[in-house]
Amino acid sequence: MQKHSDSNYSHSKAPVTESTMPDIRKIFQLFKKNWYFLLISFPLFTGLTYIYHRYTPVVYKGSVTIMLKSDEKRTVSGAEIIEGFGLSPETKSIENQTIILRSKKIVKRAIDRLDFAIDIYSNGVFKDTDMYQKSPFVITMDSSHVQLLNTPIHIEPIDESRVKISIKTENATLHTFANEKNQGASGAVTYEKIVKIGDWIDTPFCRFTIHTSSALSSQVGYYFYFRSHDWLAAAYRGKIQVSPYKEGSSIIYISSTGTNPHKINAFLDALTFVYLEQSLERKNEIAKRTIAFIETQLKQVADTLRQAQRKMIDFKRNNVFSAPTELSERLAERYFEYEKQLGLLQVSESYYTRLSKHLESEPLSDDYLLPIFSIESNAFVTSLVTELLGLHNELSLLQAQTNTHNPLLAEMNQKINLSKQNLLVALHKILKNVALEKKKIKDQMSHLAARMNDLPENERLFLDIERDYKLNDAIYTFLLQKKSETQITKASNTPDNEILDDASIVGVVSPNKSKNKQQAILLAFLLPVGIVVLKEYLNNKIRDRNDLTSLAPRTTILGYIPQYKGTGNMVIKAEPLSSTSESFRALRTKLKYLTPENGKLVLTITSTNTGEGKTFCALNLASAFAISGKKTVLVGFDLRKPRLTELFRHENEQGLSNYLIGQAQIDEIMYPGGADNFTIVPSGTIPPNPSELISGIHTQRFFTEIKEIFDVVIVDSPPIGLVADARLLLEYSDCHLFVVRANKTVKEQFKHTLQNLMDDEVPPTGIVLNDLNSKIGGYGYYSEKYYTDSKKA
């Protein structure tokens, strides 16, 4: 018996690099095969997008434009006295304006100006609608009575004059709007009552009345909430955004979002009004305090001036004195000037001393911003005070926005301490200079006083009285002048900033229909692609020639069997002109070159697992040899699953198993195969010990006898990847084929089985790729356009 030899085994050549076109065609065919994913995906995502847009409330964005005025024209004296003689800082950075605009104080004042405390909605089929400025009724609450906060109170119209009120909550906060204080919790509340329009709904947990402003529809339900101003301020603070027109610009946009355009615009208008108003109030407050200070000083100076005037009159009445000499007038005038300078220095010294002590021992405040009327402010000190107050203002706003552990607070405190130290050093130097200047003036005054002591007594006394009168008169005139300037400036005060554009809706924030539609289309495409890619990635089956060559690069692929869509198994007989039939003829031609010199060919056909088309290929290959004139026999050596027995209906007849146990002769187990030169040997009865039978001496005798009768012996063996039966049959074969079925054979199982054969030095003569979809991979040799396939037959 001729055994399998290496001469019958041919190694495949290295794969030839192909163009990209087959890959592109494969990808196209792959998605064409899974077209239904796209068919489902696009309507699905389009529908979901429509539903999302239909059910999602539209969020609008409103904006107002403000120009921050420059501080360049501000000075520390003159007409700008109202601003604390240059000591009142105005922070203009975008960051600071953002903090100011979002501060609790500003937002709360804006909310206090609005009627947002009663929040009314209408029930809709898909979504509820905010009824601000569109409500068909007006709700008036008793602000001195407690009200349920953030609890829906439902209103169901019964007829034109009656409504049904429903309230249900497990627990809610009770709030009095008159003093804006919470009054504890309500506990569980269940309330339902039909009331007349205009009647008071009076309960322990709320008190209000309803008046209609238009006709009510019984088809529409409504509900409303009582919202505290603190709750509203907190809610709206988070919606405020401040952004510059461009880098370095003094124009800013203040924006907010919400579902009701009227409510957004109303809030932004109130916010900008309060924002501008607070700076004007600060100016006016300083003006009021300045005028009050001046009036106090005027009263004191007026009393002193009247006393000085009375002294002068009394002196002239009681003394015979006409007029001072020219010398005495010059001396008195010079002494008066020195005295006035000394007074101004004393005022300056008093202010700087007070400011220094204030910085060292008291918290920073605006109390020392009262103006210094008799001197021009020191520009350096003014700049330091301005810087310090600006930092303090930023600290106050930052404390209102964040917690005590924020590192920005520590950084800001360090800046304030450094600014304080710089200011204290500057004040100490100024006070030293003032003391030196005072000493110098006092020395001059002492010299003049000595000269004036040489004047006659009456003349000297008169000059003293006259000098005192002139000094108080000058101070009184100065105070009147400053009071007038302050009143004029107060009357002409304007806000620091200016509104360029009033609040208006600038767009829709969400849902962004255009973007959502684009994303839906993209997802509708990506999801099927992802599914197909994932499906391909997770596919562990051999699909085409590329998969096969990558797993078995050293094994020849002898044939490609196209996918057969017919119902029978004898393709060559049923459809002789089909591409499947031609593929078996091509395989037969290749196998002729592997036939031994004696002209007898024993061919074993196996596979990794069941269901891979092993019997199908064996049957049609045997038919192809028979048609070519070769006496061919198909032997069903798969004793465990006798597929040939089922196909040819020999269940009740003797077969190979009967021969192997010695109960039948070889001529008793051979049956016609349905064509000339074609014989089959069915498996026969399923034995209990298939491996033992195949390894017995009767198997060798069977092959000896069968080769004497037939030219070609094709063995339909069991799957070599499952049982050892096929391995036992290889020693009787001239060559053996390994059948792989596309989209059926598992890669790892095939690779493992093939490796075992390689290790045992019995590699397959060749591989047959069965059930290949020609539209995806082709079988490499024939075109279905040329041959008649099963559908056209």
UniProtKB/TrEMBL annotation:
Transferase is among the record's keywords: yes
Top enzyme category: transferase
Domain AAA as annotated: residue spans: 603-727
Annotated transmembrane regions: 35-53
Pfam families for this protein: AAA_31, GNVR
Keywords per UniProt: ATP-binding, Coiled coil, Kinase, Membrane, Nucleotide-binding, Transferase, Transmembrane, Transmembrane helix, Tyrosine-protein kinase
Reaction equation(s) it catalyzes: L-tyrosyl-[protein] + ATP = O-phospho-L-tyrosyl-[protein] + ADP + H(+)
Domain Tyrosine-protein kinase G-rich: 462-536
GO cellular component annotations of the record: plasma membrane
Protein name per the record: non-specific protein-tyrosine kinase
Species whose genome carries this gene: Saccharicrinis carchari
